[in-house]
Prior knowledge:
By secondary structure, the protein is mainly β.
Amino acid sequence: MTEHAxxxxxxxxxxxxxxxxxxxxxxxxxxxxxxKNKIGTDQGIxxxxxxxxxxxxxxxxGQVWPFNHTGDSVFAITGGTGDYAGAQGDMxxxxxxxxxxxxxxxxxxx
Length: 110
């Protein structure tokens, strides 16, 4: 899947510039593996923890994910709903392209 990060917005909190505590909010469209058909949306809020490198993302339901600007980010899957209730595994998030406005999601379920 591919997320189009078109609504990402950073709110500068505290000292001017990239700093601990800044906020990143998003509500983006998600497309199929071919990046052609919209299959859903995602949304959440992230808090800057390491300037220029890492956000802690809170995509919902009390989860916290470290989201890295450099390299891949790996998130634990600890449950789900419907057919995926009790799911386990991980998800790899990688920047897609060179603009920093799209990300691929690779789910590895056990």
